[in-house]
Amino acid sequence: APEQAARMKKLQEQEKRQKVEFRKRMEQEVSQFIQATGEPRRRFQPMNKIERSILHDVAEVAGLTSFSFGDDEDSRYVMVFKKEFAPSDEELDAYRRGEEWDPALAEERRRLRELAAQQEEAELECGPAPPGPPNDYKDKYRHLIGSDAAKAAARTMEANKTYGCVPVANKRDTRSIEEAMNEIRAKKRLRQAEDE
């Protein structure tokens, strides 16, 4: 047990030293990035979660903006941006999708979105479309009903005058309404008497 505790302490000290060395190295790289005038952003190699958090901390202290990109833990990397070249939402979305940022393509997409918005506004100004289906159902079923079969059927149709009336022979319950209501009342009185 004492040997294992000593070994654990040694490993912890070694990890701590590595983190301090990594932080110093990242501070140097970030300071070089700040001094490089023609570089608006810098992409770092994929690193683990602890190293990424150290780099985010260093970037924040230096006054830079930093984001992590990548799908799985092994391929996640950090990009650091200078404040004056802060990324737009479209640029961040492109990096999240794993694409390279192309300002010309983004400008084209923005222009297409504006054009679509203008078309929607123009359609709204014209007023709503007239109510009704966009096409006639008869065109869809013309091969079944023909061209004038529906018109002929519409002329010869007459309303069923007995609609809603059921003949007595078809009824299951042949009692009158009064008889059915009297039976319901009797059952109700019987139930109330049992409850009392």
From TrEMBL:
Domain R3H: 20-83
InterPro entries registered for this protein in UniProt: R3H_dom, R3H_dom_sf, R3H_sperm-antigen, SPAG7
Pfam families: R3H
GO molecular function: nucleic acid binding
Chain positions covered by the region annotation Disordered: 116-139
SUPFAM superfamilies: R3H domain
Transmembrane spans: none
The protein's name in its UniProt record: SPAG7 protein
